[in-house]
Amino acid sequence: MYKQVAMDKKRVAGKRILCSNRYGRVGCGRTRQLYLADVIPQRHYSLAVVIAFIQTLLAGSHVEHAYLNAVAATQYTLKAARHAWRWLTALFKQLSLWRTYLDKSSERVVYSGPSTSLKHLLPTLDVLLTCQHTTLSDYQHHFQRAFF
Tell me, what's the pLDDT at 89? Predict the structure, then answer.
């Protein structure tokens, strides 16, 4: 399975597996997708770009600046900062799952900006990024679900 990076380039994203029900085999006949641990399904950017976005936010940058800084090194031409808010909405939807996974007492970042969603989201993301026993690709591998 490949992702189209540019018109002439492709990047490996994972593998497709057929659950065959042909030739007397018992199977459902569906195709399953196995993604690499650094790929977020249904997203253009890799997990490394999302991590760079989160780290820039944690450093105190504004949301649009953090997004443009994170995607600057990529080959995609779609670099509209409005996508940063879409990412934050998707990340916020995963907040309760991450908090059940993590120890909340280790949160140490205090966000003092105007956004209440970032006030709740950034401390949890900081703990996710600084956990010594896991990385975000390990998280995806362990739970077999996309980071967001």
Answer: 92
